[in-house]
């Protein structure tokens, strides 16, 4: 900060400050150093109150007994029984809805990227931006109209004697949640991976072809290795997005499915009869640990990705 | 149209997409049309269009199967809908006001005077993406004082947090695209004070970024379910889930589709306006 204020006086320093200060005054020079930073104090304070304190609150209550005092009983409770199943289901769901839409999203993005139709490219960019962000309740009800018991697609399939229920698909359970998540996960992957595809230089392919490489060999030795970190990074984002999702799963299954976010919600709602109400915070703590690990991995693959692509 | 429902990992990407940054030119590979592209596009198109078709069909079709506007006309009369819409509207306005008042001066100031703190801003504004809304609201309800929990505007205060990632990305991209230093120095050398420089010189120059940030925030608030339902306030998404009317869920589907279609149309218009503006700017 000192270097900055050497070149320009702070515009928000009080009238008595900046220009009029005697250079030797200790108190004033302290103020001059800190004043430029003072302008972002409201933001820092807001973030501390809105993000920091609630997160610390979760950590605090995760290790507090209902009767007071510190305990690790909550945390050990959530790695057993129904809460462990909740984590397992959440991780399974997140893996399923990050790997499949991840791979599919790459193909969609590549199909559109190499398309000559400007219109198609622009429309997909807009559509994926919009679709990736709006899951939740509205999406749930759109899928009720599609795959519910009297849904449009259900009836179409019934007309050709395909019964989704007998195939093991139920909209209001795990399989339904997975299908609905794809609706925002695929566009999210398209958004994330398109810059990497843009960075895949045509000259690399031409160089490979000049040296006699087949399309397969180009992808095997150049394309896939260069794209891989970005694809993995995208899948990690998708994993985080699915792992943390609450609204879609809750509104679709009315909370009967054992997923960690829904279990936390049940504790907040007071729907759980338990000796220790703080177990909900221990589940939240567990989610934070898993997401922190995902973010560390993400940072690592991002570094690898930026080696070739900018 | 909840905030990505999950951490709004994509909203900031959308914010960047919508912000007025000059797009880089691409060396686009010219490839032969391949059979698989057709397959991928048809499957994708079907997956994304059939649910929209189904939702619209339910919205315009009564229980008796005839097409009419009757379902949509019943919506405003449905028990509790207007109250929910009014609550959502108040929360949305409050959220945008607080978010703009907090984020705009801070982001501009950091760009102008404290560029070294941009990394800190990046870090703080990515936290709401990493920490799930369900965890945040659990913490908030555990620690917030009672008087704050008694008002719905606690939700607005938290929505500002949820909106931080994409508001910051949008403003950041918008500010990088203009010559902020020259503009503000010109304004100041003409005698403009800090406030008038911000309001009359900088803000008009980042207006597209500001508008897209505000619209994304509005859309997020109108779709947010996780925090609203757990804080026990009946906003529009909470109403849609709770409403238990006749008509086989047609009314809820109509409400959901109305929300989706309005959001899509507004966002699409803004993205395309932005693009055409950018093209004009490039000449």
Q: Tell me the total number of β-strands of chain A.
A: 1
State the total count of DSSP E strands of chain B.
Answer: 1
The assembly state of the depicted protein chains is: heterodimer
Look at the structure and name the CATH superfamily of chain B: MetI-like
- Principal-axes geometry of chain A comes out as globular
How does CATH name the architecture of chain B?
Orthogonal Bundle
Mean pLDDT rating of chain A: 85
Give an account of the 3D structure.
The complex is a heterodimer of chains A (310) and B (283). Chain A is mainly α and 310 residues long. Helix content of chain A is 72%, strand content 1%. Chain A is built from 14 helices and one strand, in the order ααααααβαααααααα. In chain A, α5 (81-113) packs across α9 (174-199), α7 (137-147) packs across α12 and α9 packs antiparallel against α12. Chain A is globular. The relative contact order of chain A is 0.12. Residues 1-21 of chain A have low confidence and may be disordered. Chain B has 283 residues and is mostly helical. Chain B has a single domain, classed as Orthogonal Bundle (MetI-like fold), CATH 1.10.3720.10. Helix content of chain B is 73%, strand content 1%. In chain B, α1 crosses α8 and α2 (35-60) packs across α14 (250-282). Chain B is globular and about 70 Å long. The relative contact order of chain B is 0.18. β1 (134-135) of chain A pairs antiparallel with β1 (2-3) of chain B.
